[in-house]
Design the sequence.
């Protein structure tokens, strides 16, 4: 049985694009991450539940329910949980300002780090022209993406059997397609422009499933990634430092699948800090 004793303490944690309700969701890895940490503030930055997929068929294993219950338990124990809906869970936008089980629903938020930097927190779909102006194409793209994720799951199952770690096929394909790279660049520029317009130091978002932390003309752009491919989260340490954690790499698959020993926790490590 997994130990719920946290071994890492953070001031703030940011996760997005969990896509509960889909077969591609890495709920077990997310649960492992949540159980390993405690934080003062937890930001859920959109596409936590995949309403698009659930409309076409119900897929809700126990691990998905466990994620929801664990987050609600964190809220009851004093963690400030802010839920910023995305396009896949856009129905929640009708309830902005409502407190649900200790969770505050907001269209977007402004986060101030301990060292005084301000960040716009938004899912980011408002800056995706396909989602905003050609939703049928967005649905088609979502179907194609889920097909790739299914292949990704089969591929990594075979890798685990051979003793290899997690590797994202879909992220690799996105990195090789010129149009995808241009879309990502346009998206990053658009959200950075919005942060500049709001007069903040940076932006923290999700949506495109590509964890990143970089400077864009004086604006700190941070994407916290997702929990279907990279299994990444953004954390703010107690000194205000921000770091991207790659949990799938930090936590080996053999440890996730082994039932007898769930107590060993990895050392912290991430892709970038700011």
Sequence:
């Amino acid at each position: 049985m997994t130990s719920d004793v946290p071994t890492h303490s953070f001031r703030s944690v940011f996760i997005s694009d969990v896509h509960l309700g889909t077969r591609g969701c890495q709920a077990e890895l997310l649960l492992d991450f949540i159980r390993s940490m405690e934080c003062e503030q937890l930001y859920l930055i959109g596409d936590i539940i995949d309403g698009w997929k659930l409309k076409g068929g119900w897929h809700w294993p126990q691990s998905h329910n466990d994620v929801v219950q664990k987050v609600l338990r964190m809220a009851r124990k004093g963690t400030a949980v802010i839920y910023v809906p995305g396009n896949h869970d856009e129905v929640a936008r009708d309830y902005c300002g409502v407190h649900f089980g200790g969770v505050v629903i907001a269209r977007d938020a402004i986060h101030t780090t301990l060292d005084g930097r301000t960040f716009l927190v938004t899912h980011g779909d408002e800056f995706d022209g396909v989602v905003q102006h050609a939703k049928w194409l967005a649905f088609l793209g979502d179907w194609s993406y889920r097909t790739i994720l299914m292949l990704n799951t089969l591929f990594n199952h075979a890798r685990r059997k051979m003793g290899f770690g997690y590797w994202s096929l879909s992220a690799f394909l996105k990195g090789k397609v010129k149009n995808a790279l241009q879309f990502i660049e346009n998206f990053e520029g658009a959200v950075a422009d919005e942060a500049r317009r709001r007069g903040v130091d940076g932006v923290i978002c999700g949506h495109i499933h590509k964890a990143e932390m970089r400077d864009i003309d004086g604006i700190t752009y941070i994407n916290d990634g997702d929990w279907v491919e990279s299994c990444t989260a953004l954390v703010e340490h107690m000194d205000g430092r921000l770091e991207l954690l790659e949990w799938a790499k930090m936590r080996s698959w053999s440890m996730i699948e082994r039932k007898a020993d769930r107590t060993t926790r990895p050392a912290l490590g991430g892709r970038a800090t700011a």
